[in-house]
Amino acid sequence: MYRTHHCGALRISDVGSEVTLSGWNQASRDFGGLTFVDLRDRYGITQLVFNIEDDKVLAEQAGKLGREFVLKVTGVVRERSNKNPNRPTGDIEIEVKTLEILNGSKTPPFTIEDETDGGDDLRMKYRYLDMRRAPVRDNLIFRSKLAIETRKYLSDSEFVEVETPFLIKSTPEGARDFVVPSRMNPGQFYALPQSPQTFKQLLMVAGMDRYFQIVKCFRDEDLRADRQPEFTQIDCEMAFVTRDEILDTFEGLTKHLFKQTLSIDLPDFPKMSYDDAMSRYGSDKPDTRFGMEFVEMNEFTQNQGFNVFDSAELVVGIVAKGIAADYSNKDLNKLTDWMKRPQIGAKGLVYVKCNEDGSFKSTVGKFFDDAALQNWADKMGAEKGDIIFALSGEKDKTRKQLNELRLEMGRKMGLMDPKQFNPLWVVDFPLLEWDEDSNRFHAMHHPFTAPKKEDEQRMLTGDHETMKSLRADAYDLVINGVEIGGGSIRIHDRDLQSKNFDLLGFSKEEAEEQFGFLLGAFEYGAPPHGGIAFGFDRLCAVLNGVNSIRDFIAFPKNNQGRDMMIDTPSRIDDEQLKELNLDVTVAEKE
Amino acid sequence: MYRTHHCGALRISDVGSEVTLSGWNQASRDFGGLTFVDLRDRYGITQLVFNIEDDKVLAEQAGKLGREFVLKVTGVVRERSNKNPNRPTGDIEIEVKTLEILNGSKTPPFTIEDETDGGDDLRMKYRYLDMRRAPVRDNLIFRSKLAIETRKYLSDSEFVEVETPFLIKSTPEGARDFVVPSRMNPGQFYALPQSPQTFKQLLMVAGMDRYFQIVKCFRDEDLRADRQPEFTQIDCEMAFVTRDEILDTFEGLTKHLFKQTLSIDLPDFPKMSYDDAMSRYGSDKPDTRFGMEFVEMNEFTQNQGFNVFDSAELVVGIVAKGIAADYSNKDLNKLTDWMKRPQIGAKGLVYVKCNEDGSFKSTVGKFFDDAALQNWADKMGAEKGDIIFALSGEKDKTRKQLNELRLEMGRKMGLMDPKQFNPLWVVDFPLLEWDEDSNRFHAMHHPFTAPKKEDEQRMLTGDHETMKSLRADAYDLVINGVEIGGGSIRIHDRDLQSKNFDLLGFSKEEAEEQFGFLLGAFEYGAPPHGGIAFGFDRLCAVLNGVNSIRDFIAFPKNNQGRDMMIDTPSRIDDEQLKELNLDVTVAEKE
């Protein structure tokens, strides 16, 4: 037997017991004829002590133990004279009688401490050492707990977890699929699922009533910092259900998860329409931890001789409270440059400093006198000490730019408290987006999303312009500016579905080719249904107030889609290619 | 709102309530001015009644409802005059006030009844209709419950569920991999995991201590009736653990699952060595629900003039109790033919009928007189009315053949009670199998399996013959002749691992190329560890006393690896192939 207790288990009440522990040598030090070793496992750290007067050979052996050596010790628990109140086992230590080195270790390439000296690449390559660090380990344990609580809540709500297949059919819609060549069906391929969307709808046709799954999904997209080629979803679908029943259910899930993992009672989630979110925050995922809401300024800024504003579809601004004294002209110029970067693309940034003495300092002082600026301030609720920022131009683009500025100011001003959680539902998204380039509509959510009930007739009978104003019965859950999940009520009526495919530019044949099995299923008594999917990796990150999903993935890939630890992807044997009836058309790079 | 209750919810205590139900029209019938409709959902069936005297239009509408139409009704619960005690809702019916047809349905291609008229292929193509049938639905709900209970038990035992990656590295060992071409790394491929074996060992090196995952695995093998290209494992690994601690933990899991799903208390699981299993049952997964154990007959059958026996390495038999009177010569000849089929390949079958009158009737009567046969009977515990079956030849082959006969007789004689569950651990497997064809050893389990502690020295220092006798610290859980799971203690010592790779014919370079990342990890303080994996699909099947895992998979593939419902795999666009730097070398078949 390797242990009677974990390294986090022993307390003052165990003093006098003979115990066996196993773990890693976190650190050792000699002090006045004693050798101390911190023995670490997943559960904690226990101090071992070797006394040179009791057993010289043993104490000398202990003095030579390398970091991360794997040890098994037997000894007696005794009270520490010098207690460590920061450690649950800090009242005791083990007076070691026997020591067995279970395995040696090379010196790790970085320190196994909460704060390590290892860079990102090194830690990814030696992920198995990185994971010995408490923050990484705790993230993975947190993730496991979050999955357990998710399953508990959904099972208690009569959801059945059904495993949908991974080897499915490639469809040209949506993101790019990863494909899997089939050996038994030469020249043919499976695709890995981007989501179990069609299967969960089939499960509703099948009468499964309430389905969920915590499931891996795959997208072959160019990777950004916060994207992974494989990621995990909490995927759900319900039949005979209205939108609000779905929102209530998953608001309940979210509250349950916050309560169980963080002991936080979330308030009821407000609902905000997409239109409201865009006009108040310039974003369909507003961070509502702080105000700084958009004020539309056209009315009191246009037709006053400033051509830039006069020619703009929208003039819109925000008020940053109490920072006028802190922001020099240089700071404000830097901010203007930041807004002009290609990622944001603002042409300029108008600001008005509301000085403590009642005067104003503004980039547009030439066009607006103090009285005019005082009028701005009054209309916008700006006071002495505040700064007004304003942008102008085409509506959608300007709102997006001002959203970036609002978030940047929120960060700079410390308004994004990581301990505060502001959830909200964003609802009533547009059903269709008109794409000028391809001269067609795209589904804002996906091709099975239903229009709102009250828009159905307009959809079936309206003209082209009408289609642009249709609202989808779709919804997103947003927490602190992060989209945690989204879903919709689905179309279960064949006529409405045909109309939708028409609008999306599918011919009958294309629709049949790609979605025939689902459309076929809809002929046999499809119930009204709808669902939602949460990004599980992102949910982990948001609950912990961090941005990177990578911290919550055991073995993540880098931005080139590579696993640095196992060094994959890699070449495969010619024999394998031959069996798959494939040729590779590029030479090997060395 | 679509419903106030499910179709399985209402009872006599609800009489008088106004309710709303939604579901499918299971069946309707007219009877004396009344129309009855059975409304079905996942939870049950509720009888609706429409009275032509109350509302003629409504009743006539109800009379015309097609099977599987999706309905929403509102009405009042009332007591049935003609109660149905076989249905939980059988005491009540709904007097319908309003009826809404939520969706129509074409006539299903087979009946949606527990016993359907649909063949396998049709049911697979319309799996979403097949699933509306109670037996299929209940299997999937059972599976969900089994997963929940598995997670509950393992979480309560401090296991952490960690998601390991699906896009990993192809290795030539084991079964064939499914591969996934990487667009971002031209000419390179990921592989889908056959199991998370190396990752779970890395998690032990990482100090995760106790890992589990219910996870999809993939094998590109030629499919047999009971194989699927994607299947699910309960995958586990533990550090600082002995074999018996692992067996106790997973015996505990198995007992928990039987208790929670079937209310069965399993007895403690016996352990049987591989050698014992082979000599007593001719199988490493013996069905111990019945005896009919092997008796080795060399001692009392050889050197008595029957050359076939005399030249055989092994003469071995079984006693089938009490069937002598039931088996005519014709029956026994048929059985002999069955044994001679190429799948089994016996050269013949010796039998001895022990007649009620004390005489014997035997295929080898020419060589053995009644006194000799009486001696067989005495030695083998055969009595009047029994039949002795015997085979002879090379030891391993003969045992395998007799195992087939034993199982066949068990089936024929009704000895395999599907309500009885006989679990056992088979332990002490050989570490290595010598393969004459390739003139090398194969790992019986996998290349990381440790030899038993007491065999380590012999492994490091022994000669070629010694290697054949090494035993692995490996174990299988067998229930009713089905291997539910298996695992082993792993090698955590670099020297032992090198020796094992040597024996398995890996050069240093090959070992490095394929397993470098794991061997590298083992340099940094690998703890002693071991684990196990259960076949989750098979576990579902065994608990339900059936053979086919397909019954417990929502969307299975057929023997050609095709999903008949979504018609995949399929061709992909040339554009997609080009992005992946691939050419297909076979023409499309139409």
UniProtKB/TrEMBL annotation, chains A, B:
Location of the region described as Aspartate in the Swiss-Prot/TrEMBL record: 197-200
Lineage: Bacteria, Pseudomonadati, Bacteroidota, Saprospiria, Saprospirales
GO terms for MF: aspartate-tRNA ligase activity; ATP binding; nucleic acid binding
Family the entry assigns: Belongs to the class-II aminoacyl-tRNA synthetase family. Type 1 subfamily.
Subunit composition and interactions: Homodimer.
Biological processes per GO annotation: aspartyl-tRNA aminoacylation
Protein EC: 6.1.1.12
Keywords from the UniProt entry: Aminoacyl-tRNA synthetase, ATP-binding, Cytoplasm, Ligase, Nucleotide-binding, Protein biosynthesis
Residues engaged in binding L-aspartate: E173, R219, H445, R490
Function: Catalyzes the attachment of L-aspartate to tRNA(Asp) in a two-step reaction: L-aspartate is first activated by ATP to form Asp-AMP and then transferred to the acceptor end of tRNA(Asp).
Top EC class of this enzyme: ligase
Residues binding ATP: R219, D220, E221, Q228, E483, G535, F536, D537, R538
Domain of life: Bacteria
Catalytic activity: tRNA(Asp) + L-aspartate + ATP = L-aspartyl-tRNA(Asp) + AMP + diphosphate
Aminoacyl-transfer RNA synthetases class-II family profile domain residues: 143-569
Matching HAMAP family: Asp_tRNA_synth_type1
Any one of the GO CC terms: cytoplasm
Official protein name in the record: Aspartate--tRNA ligase
Cellular compartments annotated: Cytoplasm
Record gene name: aspS
